[in-house]
Design goal:
The complex is a heterotetramer of chains A (288), B (238), C (381) and D (417). In chain A, α2 (40-56) packs across α9 (216-229), α9 packs parallel to α11 and α10 (233-255) packs antiparallel against α11 (257-274). Helices cover 76% and strands 3% of the residues of chain A. With 288 residues, chain A is an all-alpha fold. Chain A has a single domain (2-281), classed as ABC transporter involved in vitamin B12 uptake, BtuC (Orthogonal Bundle), CATH 1.10.3470. The longest helix of chain A has 32 residues, at 2-33. Chain A is globular and about 65 Å long. Chain A has helices at residues 2-33, 40-56, 61-82, 91-113, 136-158, 160-170, 172-177, 182-204, 216-229, 233-255, 257-274, 278-283, and strands at 126-129, 132-135. Chain B is an alpha/beta fold and 238 residues long. In chain B, 39% of the residues lie in helices and 26% in strands. The longest helix of chain B is centred in the last third of the chain and has 16 residues, at 169-184. Chain B is globular, with a radius of gyration of 18 Å. Chain C has a domain at 78-343: ABC transporter involved in vitamin B12 uptake, BtuC (Orthogonal Bundle). Helices cover 67% and strands 3% of the residues of chain C. Chain C has helices at residues 30-36, 47-67, 70-95, 103-121, 127-151, 157-176, 217-239, 241-251, 253-257, 263-289, 299-312, 317-338, 342-356, 361-380; strands at residues 184-185, 188-189, 196-197, 203-204, 211-212, 291-292. In chain C, α11 (299-312) packs across α12. Mean pLDDT of chain C is 85; it is low at 1-27. Mean pLDDT of chain D is 87; it is low at 1-31. In chain D, the strands form four sheets. Chain D has a seven-stranded mixed β-sheet with strand order 8-7-9-10-11-15-16, sandwiched between helices. A five-stranded parallel β-sheet of chain D has the order 2-1-3-4-6, sandwiched between helices. In chain D, strands 12-13-14 form a three-stranded antiparallel β-sheet. Chain D is globular and about 65 Å long. Helices cover 41% and strands 21% of the residues of chain D. Classes of the chains: A mainly alpha (288), B alpha/beta (238), C mainly alpha (381), D alpha/beta (417). Chains in contact: A-B, A-C, A-D, B-C, C-D. Chain A binds chain B through residues 285-287, and chain B through 14-15, 17.
C-alpha cells in the first residue's frame, strides 16, 4: 500500500516539476509583458546545450546548469532589445516574430552544431521504495521546482526590481512618470523569463536526447500550464501545475500515456471554458 | 409615474470589497440626474450593473417599468438604454461616418441612413470631419462622436460616464448645451461627473455615492448645501 | 421586440425620425446594391485602377497554363488549395479580431471526412463534389458547436488561441494512434500517423467517362475560379452590415455590444465562415494529393496559416490572398534552392516583416504607395 | 559495362540463366542518352535529420563510385537532391516536382512511413519507380515501390526467440503509438506466443512524449525478463536515460535504436547498457566489406558523426537500382521491373549480400544481433545471413502475378485472389 501511494506521489511530483519548470519562464514573459513567446522551446534548448557543453568542459553540474540559464538569459535580453521591445504594443505579432526566431534557432543550431549532441548521464543514482526504484535526480527536480516558485515570489514581491516590474506592468504610464526606466525593466523581465527556460533546459538536459528540436517536447505543456494559470505566475502557474499534474498523473496511471496527453488538453479546454481568464483571473476576480 | 430607472437592494461585492451595497435608486423620465462621489465610491460599478456588464450578487434593476436584471447588455440596449463610456469608446480605425453607420445600420438604410448620419454629425458638430479616421480626432471630438453614436439609437435613457473629462471649458459648455437639447426632447440622462461646474450646469437631481452606498440625494442646491457631502467629497476635492 | 423607434417622445431636436425605423426591418439592397459592396469600406483596393488591375491579374492567371509546364500548373493549383483557409482566418482574426490557432482542426476534419465518404461511396455521378459539400458542412457544424462553447463562454484573446490550439492537438494525437484495423469507418481505414490514402481526386461526371481532376490544367481552372469567387464573396460579406459589425467588434467589443449588437453571434458567424473555408482547404488538399495525415493538424501545421495571414496583412482580404500565395511560393522556392538554409531564411523573413511592415507586407507596400503619391502631389502643388 | 554486371552476378547467391538478361538487354539499346537521373528526397533538416543526413551521403558516395567506374550502361549518374525538411507536405510538393519537372528515372525518398504514404499516390499517378530504402513496419505491396529496408519478420523472427532463450520468456513491450509501433508490437506478440513465452505487458506511447516515470514504474511492477522498446523519435529516446537513472536494469530488445539513431554514441553510458538490436548494418560491423566501406565513406565525408543503417541502405539501394538497370539495359520502368522479377538483382553490400525478392519487391538482408555493453561498446554475438522478407509473399502479395498498390498488415492481409 505505502509503496503504491509513494509511487503515485512520485508521479504527481514528477509531472508537477516538469510543468512548473517548463512553464515558469513562459509565464513570466506572458504574464508580465503579454508576449506570447513561441521561441520558448529554443531558450530551453539553448540552456540544455550550454549546460552540457559546460559539463563536458569539466564544470560541476550546478555550475554548468547556471551557465546554461545565464546564456539563455543573455540571449533573451539581446533579443528583447533587438526585436521584442518594438512589438510590446502589438502582442499578437510577437507570435509571428518569436516563431521566426524559433525557426532560425532550431535550424541554425542544426547547421552549426550538427543534428545531435552527445549527452551527459543523470547524476546521483537511484533509490528504492518497495518493488519500485526511482531516480534521485528526479526528486531533486521536484524540490527545485518548489524552491523556484518560492524564489520567484520573493523576487517579485520583496525586491526593488520586482516591485518596479509589477508597477511597470500594471500602470506603465505611472511607472515611467515616476522615473522608472521601463525599457530596462522589460529587458530584465524577458531576460529572467529566458533564463528560467534555460534553467529548465539545463535541469532536464541529463535526462533527455539533445537535438535542436528538443524544445518542442516542452512547449505544449508549458503553454497549457500558462494559459490555465492565467496572467499571474504565483497565483496562476503554481495552482495550474498542481491541477494539471494531478490530472496527468491520474490519467496516465489509469489509462496510459495517450490519455495523459489527451486528458491534459481536455482539462485546458474545460478550465478555460469555466474560467475564461485562467485560474489567476478567477482568484483575482474583481480586483482591478 | 413609473421610474425610468430604478434599483432595489442592489448589491455587488468582490470578496470583502463592496462596490454596491443595498442601493435603492430611482429616477423619473425626463430627468437629468448626476451621480457623484469620491474615487472608488462605486459610480462606474453602478453603471456596469445597470448596463449588465456586472452581475449583481443581490437585488433587482428595473428599466421603464420592466425588470432587466437578467438581461444581457445588448438586450438592455435594445430596450432603450444607451451609454457613452468614460474612455471614448469609438472605432478608431474607421472613419467618423462609418462609426455612425455601424450604430445606425440596423435601423435604417440607403438614403434615410445617410440623411440621419448627416444630421447626427451636425448635432455633435462633426460635419466637417465625416471622412476623418476617428482615431485622428481630438479628445473632445472623440467624446462627441461617441455621444453621437449613443444618441443615434434614440434611447429613452442615456448614461454618460464623465462626458467632459479632458475637455476645454469651451467644449464643456458645448457638451452641456447638447445635454440640455437632448433632454428638452424628452431623453432622460444619467451622468457620472467629477466637474462640479458641469454638474451645476446640467443636473436637476444629484445622488452621492460613498463606499458603494447612497450617501445623499437631492437637488443640486441641497447637495451643495449638505455639509456631510462637502466633508466626504467636496472637501476632499478642493 | 420593440425597437427604440417606438419610444416616440425620446428624440433629439435636430435628429428627425425616419420612417420604418425598427430593428426587425431590413431594406432590400437588390442585386446590384449587394454587388456594390464588393468595393466597400472594409477592403483595400477600390476604384477603377484596382479593378482594372484585378481583371488583368485574372486574365493573366487564366492564360498562365498555356505558358507553364505541367508541374508548375499543378503546383500553383496546390498553392490555391491553401488560400481558402487563409482567407477564412483573415475573416476570423483580421476582421473579427479573434485569433484562432486551431483552424487546422477543421482542415483535418473535412479532409478525413472527404476521404471516408469517397472511399466508401466512390467517385461516380459527381459524388466527390457531394462529398466536398458534406465535408465542409461537417466543418461548419463542428465550428458551430465549438464556437458556441467558446464565444458564448466569453473566451477571448490569447486564451481563445490556446483553446483552439488544444482542440487541434487533441485531434492530432487521437488520429495518430488509429493505425489498427479497428479504426475504420466502413471501407475507409483511418490508418493512424501514416495517414489515409486511396481516396479519389475530385471527379467531374461526363458522358463517355468521368473526368478525374488530377493536379493539372482542369483542376487549376476549377481552383482558380473557386478562389476568385471566394475572394469576391468574402469582400461582399466583410463590407456588408455583418462585416461592419465584425470590424466594430475588433475595434472595440464593449462599444459594439453597447450599440445593441449581440457580439457573440457575430463572432460565431465569422468563426463558422472561416472554419468552413478551412474545411474547404482540407478537402481540396486531400483530393489534390489523395492523402491526409494527422500531421496536418499538428503544432507546425497550425502555425502556418497564422504566418501566411500575418505576413500578408491580416486585416485585409486582398493582402491576405496575395500574401499567402507569396509566402507559399517563397518558402517553397527556398526549400528547392536554399537546401538547409531555407528554414533560417524563412525565419528571418518573418522577423523582418513583423518589425518593418507591422500591418503586413502587402498592406505595408500599399501604404508606402499611398504615401509616395501624397508626397508627389504635395510636391507638385 | 557487362563486366561490372557479371561481376555482381558471379558473386550473387541466386545466379541463374542469362536468358532473361539477354532479353531485356536487347530491347533497350540506349533509347535515352545523357546521364541517368536519380531523385533523392531525404531529410536534411527537421526532426528526422539526425538519422537521415547519412542517406543523402550514402547516395552521393554510391553515385560517385559508380560514376568513377564508368557509370551505368556507360551513362553517368546525376543525383537530383532536395530537402523535404521532415515535412510530409514538402514530400508531396517535391515528389511532384522531381517526377514532373526533373523527369528523374527513379526516386529514392523518405524516412518515416508517413512520408512514404504521402508520396505513394503521386508515384502511382505518374507510374514512376520508387525505392524506399528505410526499415519500416512492412506490408507495402505496390508495383511501383521497391522497399529495400529490413521489415519486422527479418528483425523480430531473429531477435525475439534469441532474447527469450537467453533471458527468459516474460516479455513487456513499449511501443510508439502509431503504425510502426503498433504493427511491430503485433509481431512481437505473435513471436512470443509462438515461442511459448508470455506477454506480461504492452504499452503504447504517443509520439513526442519525453517523460517516462510512470512507464518505468509500470515495467517494474510487471517485472519482465525482456523489455522490447519500440520507441521512435528523439523525444521518445529520452526513455533510456530515464530508465537507467531509475536503475531499471532489464535486458532490452529493439528493432529501431542504435542502428538508426546511434543512441549508444549520443548518450552517456550506461543508458543503453543491456540493449539488443537486430540491424542489417551498423558502422561497427567488422567484416572486410564493411571496413572498406567505412574507409571510403570517411574519405568522402570526414566529419560524419556515425555511418548508420539508413546511410548504408541508401548506398546499397543505388547499387541495386544500378544492377537492375544494367540487367534491363534501359531505365524504362517496366524493363527495370522485369529485371527485378528475375529474382537475380543482388548486390554484395557492406552488410553482406542483399537480393530483391521478386514477389514483394523487398530485400533479403544479413541481420546482426547488436549488443550494447555497460560502457556502450558494441558486440555482435550472432549473425544471421540471407534472412528473407517472407511475410508479404506468404500472405498473398505476388507482384510478378498482379500489380497491387496498398499497404497490408498481419491483421489486414491482401484479399484472397
Amino acid at each position: 500500500m505505502l509503496p503504491s501511494i509513494f509511487a503515485f506521489l512520485f508521479q504527481f511530483g514528477d509531472a508537477f516539476a516538469f510543468l512548473v519548470l517548463a512553464a515558469a519562464g513562459l509565464a513570466i514573459i506572458f504574464g508580465m509583458m503579454g508576449v506570447i513567446n513561441l521561441a520558448h522551446g529554443e531558450f530551453i534548448m539553448c540552456g540544455a546545450y550550454v549546460t552540457v557543453a559546460a559539463a563536458r568542459a569539466g564544470l560541476p553540474m550546478p555550475a554548468a546548469i547556471a551557465c546554461g540559464a545565464l546564456a539563455a538569459g543573455i540571449v533573451g535580453i539581446v533579443l528583447e532589445r533587438l526585436v521584442i521591445q518594438r512589438l510590446l504594443h502589438r502582442p499578437l505579432d510577437t507570435i509571428v516574430a518569436t516563431w521566426g526566431i524559433s525557426l532560425i534557432a532550431t535550424q541554425g543550431t542544426l547547421i552549426v552544431l550538427g543534428s545531435t549532441m552527445p549527452g551527459i548521464g543523470t547524476p546521483f543514482g537511484s533509490f528504492s521504495v518497495g518493488e519500485f526504484s526511482y531516480s534521485v535526480y528526479r526528486v531533486l527536480l521536484m524540490a527545485i521546482a518548489v524552491l523556484l516558485l518560492i524564489g520567484l515570489y520573493l523576487l517579485f514581491h520583496k525586491t526593488r526590481y520586482g516591485v518596479l516590474a509589477r508597477a511597470t506592468i500594471q500602470v506603465p504610464s505611472m511607472a515611467s512618470a515616476l522615473g522608472v526606466n521601463t525599457a530596462v525593466v522589460h529587458s530584465l523581465t524577458f531576460g529572467i523569463g529566458a533564463a528560467l527556460a534555460g534553467l529548465a533546459g539545463g535541469l532536464y538536459a541529463p535526462t533527455m536526447t539533445l537535438v535542436p528540436t528538443m524544445g518542442t517536447a516542452f512547449i505544449v505543456e508549458a503553454f497549457v500550464t500558462v494559459v490555465v494559470g492565467g496572467g499571474d505566475v504565483f497565483l496562476g502557474t503554481a495552482p495550474a501545475a498542481v491541477v494539471l499534474a494531478f490530472v496527468k498523473a491520474l490519467m496516465i496511471n489509469w489509462y496510459g500515456q495517450l490519455f495523459g496527453l489527451i486528458g491534459l488538453l481536455l482539462a485546458v479546454i474545460i478550465v478555460i471554458r469555466l474560467l475564461p481568464r485562467g485560474l489567476s483571473g478567477w482568484i483575482l476576480r474583481g480586483r482591478e | 409615474m413609473t421610474a425610468i430607472l430604478a434599483t432595489e437592494g442592489l448589491q455587488k461585492n468582490f470578496g470583502g470589497v463592496f462596490v454596491a451595497r443595498d442601493i435603492r435608486f430611482a429616477m423619473q423620465p425626463g430627468e437629468i440626474h448626476c451621480l457623484i462621489g469620491p474615487n472608488g465610491a462605486g459610480k462606474s460599478s453602478f453603471f456596469r450593473l445597470v448596463l449588465g456588464q456586472h452581475k449583481p450578487n443581490a437585488g433587482a434593476i428595473f428599466f421603464d417599468g420592466a425588470e432587466i436584471t437578467a438581461l444581457k447588455p445588448f438586450e438592455r440596449i435594445r430596450r432603450g438604454l444607451s451609454v457613452k463610456f468614460q474612455v471614448p469608446g469609438i472605432f478608431k480605425a474607421l472613419t467618423v461616418w462609418q462609426n455612425l453607420e455601424i450604430a445606425l445600420q440596423d435601423h435604417l438604410s440607403g438614403d434615410s441612413l445617410a440623411a440621419e448620419i448627416r444630421e447626427t454629425l451636425a448635432f455633435v458638430d462633426l460635419a466637417g470631419q465625416a471622412r476623418e479616421r476617428a482615431g485622428n480626432l481630438s479628445h473632445g471630438q472623440q467624446q462627441w462622436l461617441e455621444i453621437g453614436m449613443a444618441i443615434s439609437l434614440k434611447p429613452k435613457l442615456l448614461l454618460l460616464d464623465e462626458p467632459t473629462a479632458g475637455m476645454s471649458d469651451d467644449e464643456t459648455a458645448k457638451t452641456g448645451d447638447m445635454v440640455h437639447r437632448l433632454n428638452r426632447e424628452g431623453m432622460s440622462i444619467l451622468a457620472v461627473e467629477h466637474d462640479m461646474t458641469f454638474v451645476k450646469q446640467i443636473a436637476q437631481r444629484v445622488t452621492v455615492l460613498h463606499f458603494g452606498e447612497i450617501f445623499a440625494q437631492g437637488t443640486i442646491d441641497e447637495i451643495v448645501a449638505d455639509e456631510r457631502v462637502a466633508e466626504i467629497y467636496l472637501g476632499k476635492a478642493q | 421586440m420593440s425597437g427604440p423607434a417606438d419610444m416616440g417622445s425620446a428624440k433629439p431636436a435636430s435628429v428627425p425620425s425616419a420612417a420604418g425605423r425598427d430593428r426587425g426591418h431590413r431594406v432590400r439592397r437588390g442585386f446590384l446594391g449587394t454587388l456594390k459592396l464588393v468595393n466597400g469600406p472594409q477592403t483595400l483596393g477600390r476604384g477603377p485602377i484596382f479593378w482594372s488591375g484585378f481583371v488583368v491579374a485574372c486574365l493573366l492567371a487564366g492564360i498562365y497554363p498555356l505558358f507553364a509546364d505541367g508541374w508548375t500548373v499543378g503546383n500553383t493549383a496546390y498553392f490555391f488549395t491553401w488560400t481558402f483557409m487563409a482567407m477564412g482566418l483573415s475573416v476570423i482574426w483580421g476582421y473579427a479580431g479573434a485569433l484562432s490557432f486551431g483552424q487546422t482542426a477543421f482542415f483535418g476534419l473535412s479532409g478525413y471526412a472527404y476521404g471516408v465518404l469517397t472511399i466508401n461511396i466512390g467517385s461516380a455521378y459527381g459524388f466527390t463534389f457531394a462529398a466536398l459539400v458534406l465535408a465542409v458542412g461537417l466543418a461548419a457544424v463542428f465550428a458551430l458547436s465549438l464556437g458556441y462553447f467558446l464565444f458564448y463562454g466569453r473566451i477571448s484573446g490569447v486564451f481563445l488561441g490556446i483553446v483552439t490550439l488544444s482542440v487541434t492537438l487533441v485531434l492530432e494525437t487521437f488520429m495518430a494512434q488509429t493505425a489498427g484495423p479497428e479504426w475504420a469507418i466502413g471501407a475507409a481505414r483511418l490508418n493512424g500517423f501514416n495517414g489515409m490514402t486511396g481516396m479519389p481526386p475530385l471527379t467531374v461526371p461526363w458522358p463517355g467517362g468521368d473526368i478525374a481532376l488530377w493536379p493539372d490544367i482542369p483542376l487549376y481552372y476549377l481552383l482558380l475560379g473557386a478562389m476568385i469567387a471566394c475572394y469576391l464573396g468574402l469582400r461582399i460579406v466583410v463590407n456588408s452590415r455583418f462585416g461592419n459589425v465584425l470590424v466594430a467588434i475588433r475595434e472595440n467589443p464593449d462599444r459594439a455590444e453597447m450599440l445593441g449588437y449581440d457580439i457573440r453571434r457575430y463572432q460565431l458567424g465569422a468563426f463558422i465562415i472561416g472554419s468552413s473555408l478551412a474545411g474547404l482547404s482540407g478537402v481540396l488538399y486531400t483530393a489534390w494529393g489523395q492523402y491526409i495525415t494527422p500531421n496536418s493538424m499538428g503544432l507546425y501545421a497550425a502555425a502556418l496559416p497564422i504566418v501566411w495571414v500575418a505576413v500578408g496583412g491580416r486585416s485585409d482580404l486582398t493582402a491576405t490572398l496575395i500574401g499567402t500565395l507569396l509566402v507559399l511560393w517563397v518558402f517553397q522556392t527556398l526549400t528547392i534552392y536554399g537546401s538547409q538554409y531555407a528554414l533560417v531564411v524563412m525565419g528571418a523573413m518573418l522577423l523582418v516583416t513583423v518589425l518593418f511592415a507591422p500591418r503586413g507586407l502587402i498592406i505595408g507596400v500599399a501604404d508606402l504607395g499611398g504615401w509616395l503619391r501624397a508626397r508627389l502631389r504635395r510636391g507638385r502643388s | 559495362m557487362r563486366t561490372l554486371q557479371t561481376h555482381w552476378l558471379r558473386r550473387g547467391a541466386l545466379v541463374a540463366g542469362a536468358a532473361g538478361i539477354a532479353l531485356s538487354g536487347a530491347t533497350a539499346v540506349a533509347q535515352d542518352e545523357g546521364p541517368i537521373r536519380i531523385g533523392v528526397l531525404e531529410d536534411q533538416s527537421g526532426e528526422f535529420a539526425a538519422a537521415t543526413i547519412q542517406k543523402v551521403h550514402g547516395a552521393e558516395l554510391a553515385a560517385a563510385e559508380i560514376n568513377a567506374a564508368g557509370g551505368i550502361l556507360g551513362r553517368e549518374i546525376e543525383l537530383v537532391i532536395y530537402d523535404p525538411q521532415s515535412d510530409n507536405r514538402r514530400y508531396q510538393e517535391l515528389m511532384r516536382r522531381i517526377l514532373q519537372r526533373d523527369n528523374v528515372d527513379v526516386v529514392f525518398a523518405g524516412f518515416s512511413s508517413a512520408s512514404r504514404e504521402a508520396v505513394r499516390p503521386i508515384v502511382n499517378q505518374f507510374d514512376a519507380l520508387y525505392f524506399y530504402t528505410n526499415q519500416y513496419e512492412g506490408g507495402v505491396c505496390d508495383a511501383n515501390v521497391v522497399a529495400t529496408g529490413a521489415v519486422p519478420e527479418q528483425q523480430f523472427s531473429t531477435l525475439v526467440p534469441w532474447m527469450m532463450e537467453t533471458y527468459g520468456p516474460r516479455v513487456y513491450t513499449i511501443a510508439a503509438d502509431y503504425n510502426f509501433g503498433q504493427i511491430s508490437a503485433e509481431w512481437v506478440r505473435q513471436l512470443v506466443e509462438d515461442g511459448g513465452g508470455e506477454m506480461v505487458g504492452e504499452e503504447f506511447i504517443p509520439l513526442g512524449v519525453s517523460q517516462f516515470s510512470q512507464t518505468i514504474q509500470n515495467i517494474q511492477e510487471a517485472a519482465p525478463d525482456v523489455l522490447m522498446t519500440l520507441l521512435v523519435g528523439t523525444a521518445q529516446a529520452s526513455f533510456y536515460e530515464q530508465a537507467a537513472a531509475a536503475d531499471l536494469g532489464i535486458p532490452m530488445g529493439s528493432s529501431v535504436n542504435v542502428a538508426q539513431g546511434y543512441e549508444h554514441r549520443r548518450f552517456d553510458p550506461p543508458a543503453l547498457a543491456g540493449m539488443h538490436v537486430t540491424a542489417n548494418y551498423i558502422e561497427e560491423v567488422e567484416t572486410q566489406a564493411s571496413l572498406d566501406f567505412v574507409e571510403r565513406w570517411r574519405a568522402m565525408f570526414p566529419d560524419e558523426v556515425y555511418i548508420n543503417q539508413p546511410g548504408q541502405n541508401s548506398y546499397v539501394g543505388i547499387y541495386l537500382y544500378a544492377a537492375a538497370v544494367e540487367m534491363a539495359g534501359t531505365t524504362e520502368k517496366e524493363a527495370v521491373r522485369a529485371a527485378i522479377q528475375t529474382g537475380e538483382i543482388c548486390h554484395d553490400a557492406p552488410e553482406g549480400q542483399v537480393c530483391i525478392d521478386p514477389a514483394s519487391q523487398h530485400a533479403s538482408h544479413t541481420i546482426y544481433l547488436v549488443q550494447v555493453g555497460e560502457d556502450h561498446s558494441i558486440s555482435i554475438p550472432q549473425v544471421w545471413e540471407g534472412i528473407e522478407p517472407y511475410w508479404l509473399g506468404e500472405a498473398g502479395c505476388d507482384l510478378t502475378v498482379r500489380d497491387h498498390d496498398a499497404q497490408y498488415t498481419p491483421s489486414n492481409p491482401p484479399p484472397a485472389e
